[in-house]
TrEMBL record:
It is found in: Nucleus. This is DDE Tnp4 domain-containing protein. Belongs to the HARBI1 family. Its cofactor is a divalent metal cation. One of its GO terms (cellular component) is nucleus. Residues 29-194 form the DDE Tnp4 domain. InterPro entries: HARBI1-like, HARBI1_dom. The keyword Nuclease applies. Keywords: Hydrolase, Metal-binding, Nuclease, Nucleus.
């Protein structure tokens, strides 16, 4: 998959702001277990916490339910954060070689320049270009509002997986092929997913499909102070200038 240019990242950000009201968002990331038959001589490497054998599809998508990038082939026993940090995408992200636009204000009133970020769940570590929800049960209203607003953007990757599985029914049962062939099948389906999505669009009911793919295990990672400050600014913006009329009813 071709890496987006700076202008294409900006177009993705405009899409997320239009459909999810989350500014400076350039993607949603998540991982899913793809069921496979146990590879020969693999021991427990592909045996996951859900008690079946799998390889992992980690993906980032845009607001049009297209995959921006994918990482395929990690062992089922791994968790989201480990897989993401071992991916080529994360390496390029830390090296700042992905053409991601620089920070910009989210409104005319809020002049603080905030980074463009990819949204994920609690499994991913908070960093300059990765935004995750607040953890814990006794959260303030501001933090609960932020989590709701982030989930509106993050659900796009869940819908993307749902559309993928609903279109390519091979994922409804374990892949009974050699592990390298299984990885090629997954990659091919993701590329075809983008092709069909751009050619035919999508049906709304496809986005409601409950995917048969299982999520990955999570680990708690303590974020750095600078990243927490950026998240707090987003949270404050969602309570003031970026407030939505219905958001209080959703928490």
């Amino acid at each position: 998959m071709k890496g987006p240019s700076t202008e294409e990242w900006m177009e993705i950000a405009r899409g997320f702001e239009k459909y999810t009201n989350f500014p400076n968002c350039i993607g949603a990331v998540d991982g899913k277990h793809i069921r496979i038959i146990k590879p020969l001589n693999s021991g427990s490497m592909f045996y996951n916490y859900k008690h079946f054998f799998s390889t992992v599809l980690l993906a980032v998508c845009d607001a049009n339910y297209c995959f921006i990038c994918i990482d395929v082939g990690a062992c089922g026993k791994s968790n989201d954060s480990t897989i993401f940090k071992n991916s080529t995408f994360f390496k390029k992200l830390t090296e700042k070689s992905l053409n991601i636009p620089g920070p910009k204000p989210v409104s005319e009133i809020r002049t603080t320049r905030l980074p463009h970020a990819i949204v994920g769940d609690e499994a991913f570590s908070l960093s300059e270009n990765i935004m995750r929800p607040y953890c814990g049960k006794n959260l303030t209203k501001e933090k609960r509002i932020f989590n709701y607003r982030l989930s509106r953007a993050r659900r796009y990757i869940e819908c993307c997986f749902g559309i993928l599985v609903n279109k390519w029914r091979i994922f409804h049962k374990p892949l009974n092929v050699h592990i390298e062939f299984a990885q090629n099948i997954i990659k091919a389906c993701c590329v075809l997913h983008n092709y069909v999505r751009l050619r035919d669009g999508y049906r709304y009911e496809d986005t409601l499909f409950e995917t048969a793919l299982d999520g990955l295990s999570t680990t708690t990672i303590r974020p750095g102070v600078r990243s927490r400050n950026k998240r707090d600014i987003f949270a404050d913006y969602f309570m003031k200038k970026g407030r939505l009329p219905w958001q209080d009813r959703m928490i």
